Amino acid sequence: MKIRIVDIAKKAEVSAGTVDRFIHQRGKVSNKAAEKIQKAVKELGYEPDILARNLALKKELKIICLLPDPKETKYWERPDAGINKAIKELSSFKLAIEKIYFAPRVDAFNGACKIAIDSKADGVIYVPMFFNESGIFAEKLKTLNIPYIHINIHHSEATPLSFIGQNAFGAGKLAASLCQMALREKHEVLITYISKEQQEYSHHHARIEGFINYFENKKFVQPVIHHLNLKIDTNNRSYEKQLIGFLKEHPNTSTIYVPNSRAFRIASILQKSNITNIMLIGFDTLDENIQFLKEGVIDILIGQQSKSQGYNAVMLMFNAIFRKEKIADINYLPIDVLNCQNIDYYEGL
Amino acid sequence: MKIRIVDIAKKAEVSAGTVDRFIHQRGKVSNKAAEKIQKAVKELGYEPDILARNLALKKELKIICLLPDPKETKYWERPDAGINKAIKELSSFKLAIEKIYFAPRVDAFNGACKIAIDSKADGVIYVPMFFNESGIFAEKLKTLNIPYIHINIHHSEATPLSFIGQNAFGAGKLAASLCQMALREKHEVLITYISKEQQEYSHHHARIEGFINYFENKKFVQPVIHHLNLKIDTNNRSYEKQLIGFLKEHPNTSTIYVPNSRAFRIASILQKSNITNIMLIGFDTLDENIQFLKEGVIDILIGQQSKSQGYNAVMLMFNAIFRKEKIADINYLPIDVLNCQNIDYYEGL
DNA sequence: TTGTATGCGTTATCAG
DNA sequence: CTGATAACGCATACAA
Lengths: 349, 349
What we know:
The structure is a homodimer.
Chain A: H1 5-12, H2 16-24, H3 31-44, H4 50-56, E1 61-68, H5 77-89, E2 95-102, H6 106-118, E3 123-126, H7 131-143, E4 148-151, E5 162-165, H8 168-182, E6 188-195, H9 202-216, E7 224-231, H10 238-249, E8 253-257, H11 263-272, E9 279-283, H12 287-295, E10 300-303, H13 306-321, E11 330-332, E12 336-338
Parallel strand pairs in A: 1-2, 1-3, 3-4, 4-5, 5-11, 6-7, 6-8, 8-9, 9-10
Antiparallel strand pairs in A: 10-12
Helix pairs in contact in A: 1-2, 1-3, 5-13, 6-7, 8-9, 11-12
Chain B binds a DNA duplex through residues 2, 4-6, 14-18, 20-21, 24, 26-30, 33, 48-58.
């Protein structure tokens, strides 16, 4: 038998209205009423009927999602899709879920933050892409008493309601362990990535550190590890020549590890130059990456369930502010290993 | 603006009751009323409010889940946990979700089927563990017009509303591809598994076939592949001696592939005998398997998101019979690669 | 500070 | 065959 508000009202010898006020801390309730109600709630074990609540609700709660524009950085297409899935699933509820895209630059980020603040949200989900600015935004939200959730990038100083993403250091270690599995006697490893933004992201570093750490702690055959930073904004694809040049100088290179999501660019160079004896490990299931994975140019992709990042963030926020549940402050997602054999079954691609 | 039943009733110039009868095909509706309603529904774009429906609903829908007793076969603990999660999540709805466990024997399975039939379910989720009996059960359900979903094991003849599980052949191919990554010049592969049941399961065979198929289709270094079937019911752990004996005879064995979930038993033997130079690949994240994975005795486990199998099955059935949505007839889950580096992040273990 | 009445969108019942 | 109406459990506005 389900316990309703009227049941505990009867038991506490007050009216339903008073019970409601007590439960939701709205309006004033006398001490003796409060005590009786509290007792009744405990004894009968009241659980609010969230569906009935939603039906009766007048105003809707607003959740704002701030994320980099998928048009600018392809990675964000999948978290965006996850958010859309959550929106659809929660469409029956009196909930307004709004998305704000920002270009991956500090000024755009700040502008988006301002819009979010102005629109009086009941909860904010955002990607703390720029360390300082994200911290300031977090402070502002805290002052306004608006709960916020971080996705994808872990911010070491802000204290969001929850973080949803991958343990980047762990992901790097995993990549290294796979690399180790395939290593032969002589080998050199190249860590390289092509970056567009000026910004260097902490999770990319963590992926590199985890990778290196794995070998440091093991008594395996120790690879020689090289680093090569390629800037996409240097003029006219000079990074292609840089990479080819490096490989000529280091013919023992057996593995290339790309800690950001642009392995497909490296793959493209290898393919053009007909280099086939190098194992290429990258991150994230962008369409381009998947294409090269299927063609065998990329050997392994590390996945971070990007779609789930968006989906879970919205769901967690919903549970937190609508159902008023406590939610875990860290939600690490699985670190997925994808090759051409299992990519077709991944994340409903 | 949300379109309600009364809105289309007004537009169609009939009462809400008639609209309801038409939409749910309950009772009789005159032709002209039906036409007008249909037109109004199309023009206004009516979407039922599932939350309000649930509130008004009198009788609850019953979903029955038939699965092997987790106490008998440890694998089923996780699908069982997934079902529990779904039950909790759907607790606000007028839904009765019941579980029936059966011992992994034909007679027990048949008994469970009978109970399921007798209890007048609105939907049945079951594991088609025994081919013939599962087919008969499926027929019976079809006759009674009760929708059913299969989980974990694909039944080639029955036509369930949906199948949820892994592509076993694909999983075998994946295992082989990982094996290939690690292979050195000389190598032999042993495929072996310890079975308790008399029954041989089709998905175990598919895992073996996929494994072998991978090598057949590639121009890689071809391993010599051996098979060794070990019965757990042969007296007094004689299978241990059999395995050790095999390895003595075939010192080039570099890999052992265990297509069922009992890799931990093989691991235990290897550990006891101090054999460390063999790569061991198994299936499923049973606690025992995870233990050996972390100790480095098992190198790789193929995961099939067993928890999600249970969870998704219930959710799909809910969507099908409660929201009356169409659901996909095949739901392949990801084929996960787990080693000691990423196991801690898997399925919220 | 408290009690009561009304409505949310649907289902189900009952009288026409 | 059809229309009217009382629930369902909760939120909210208003009266006391």
